[in-house]
Request: fold
Amino acid sequence: MTTFTSSLPDQLLKDLDKTSKELKMPKNKLIEKALELFLDEIQKAKYAKSYKRAAKDKDIMAMAEEGMADYYKMLIEFDEQGEVQN
Reply:
């Protein structure tokens, strides 16, 4: 594990200390968890942005629609096979 040193605003450090005591969790673990959650949210926002961008791309939308049509056809065939087996 690597050591990381940083400066924090006084109030944030006070809040961290208070929360650490309330949760009975070491400050470094609290910071680690908060950073993991924050980075995960950034990743989700990137995905959402890419989907919004893809929704405006006619070629990607055409491929998605073709894929959905194929998927729907597979579901129909699967359902029909299920009825035959019953």
Summary: The two ends are 58 Å apart (CA to CA).
